[in-house]
Request: fold
Amino acid sequence: MTRRVLHDAVSLKHFAIVDRLDVLKERHGHLEEPRWCDQVYEEIKDGVGLAIENAKILSVTWLGTPEPIAIEDMAAAYRYHVALNEGREPPTMHKGEAYSIFIGQKIGAIFYTDDGTAYDWALAKVRSGLGGVRDTIEVLREAVSMGELSKTEACDLVLGMQKKGRDFRHVHDGKITPAYFDP
Amino acid sequence: MGSRIRELREAADISGEQLAVELGVDGTAVSKIEHGKRSVKASELATIARTLGVSPLAILEPDSLLGRLPVAARSGSDMLDEAVHNRLQALAELHSVLADAGITDPEFDCAWPEVDLSRWLASAQELAEWCAQRLQPADTIDRFEALAEAMESKLGIDVLVEPADSDSAMGAAITDPEFPIVFVNSRQIRARAMFTLAHELGHVLSRDGVALRIDRDLAGTDERERFANAFAAELLMPKSVIEDMLRDKGRNAEGLAAIMVRLQVSFESLVYRLHNLRYIDAHGRDQFKSLGFGGLLADLTDDALRGELLKLRTEMDTTRPPQLLLNRLLRGYFEGVVSARPIAGLLNATPEEVIAILKPDQEAASVPDSGRVQVEPLIQFNAPTASPNLAPEELFAGSPV
Reply:
């Protein structure tokens, strides 16, 4: 099966805020589309006026055409959205993650996210079709292992993202040094 | 899908133009959607559902549980209940996710006596007797929890207790047999919450065709409400217990307080019960109401009893997750059907905390007065036969809480 990837808004913003979306392009730009879904695209588009990194994401062409949800899949996909929310009110948050996991499961794509809860749930979906799940630290480790970045560059990128207020999964708390990017 | 959107829009009393504004399209686009001449994107579906006060599943699957729930109130004082409506709708959505994956409750014996609202009082009494035997909510330290636990374990009716706006509903219920669940607002005193729980149980058991019911107060405004009040009164304050205690403890402040403490009911509920058991007439009831809880307290000489009574008057101020749904969500989590968030939402925890507990090796989290009227004369003033000609509707018309 052809390797495919789907990016969540959180991870795209991590790279956009340090002007390094090229790292993702290098890793995934050559893969078959889709590389993101409609809901992630809309979330980024809706926030263009609020965050400079959103405009940077919309300006790249390699992400390709966002994948929509087919009408016949809407009920099933909406149930994913429900399953990724707290159940206090009809869901509005985490739409991009939920729909990415739904589509990723259908096409066997690897899902890239830094939302800890979505990551944890996506891991469980791997046994039912999702191609895998990775976060920013893991994609940087891949880049290091392929010689696209040095360990120090990868570490500096993450520290730069953190400095600009971006969060990572708690498993990485307090561990970010160049050695953390050993393949 | 289009005709369903039109049907729900009209039920919500929202014009096509209003919906078009919410969608950011012109009015003709809504008309095209409703006539099946324009498709709907997932994001538009969410906006349409939110505007109409329904779940998207109510549009996509009209025959489902979500399709049977009514639209949320969008105007006037009913808007205060919107949060409660949304909470129950969201829990019904979670039920739908779990049921769709085959994660259901165990089978329960649901053969309770059929309710006939045309003879609501007799029906309420029959059902309460059945429940008393089936649920056995006898004297316990925490009668509320005992009843809630029995509703879940013996009838398959979930119970959620959590704070909502104090001006919002006291209680609510999804009465649909596919997913029966009772909500009790914990921002009310314990004794009042007890009656609310039993009242909502009455609604669920009556299967009166209203899939979701929200009770701002418990006034006996129609036969459904009178039925629920009569059922709750009969279940929580059985006539035989009231009779025995009044005989043993006396028809005085001490006697009334002893009944309230033993049955864990409010002063208002007990007065309501004394009235509908005909121990007091409407005049006596009104005198009791003007006496108030403070008056009863002032009339007591037993300090220990007064202390017990005051405990009943404290706010619940607690959260109790619905156990059946919680168990299904835990199964769903381990089967990959739901994430940790719905569990966290029921437990008032963070998803990280839930993951750390459920998968400890994988994801570590770093993370009174005016007692001017004497009680004794009032309770002795009326015998049980004091008002034999009053219609049941009058006896059960007031508010018991």
About this structure: The longest strand of chain B covers residues 158-162. The CA atoms of residues 239 and 277 of chain B lie 7 Å apart. The two ends of chain B are 44 Å apart (CA to CA).
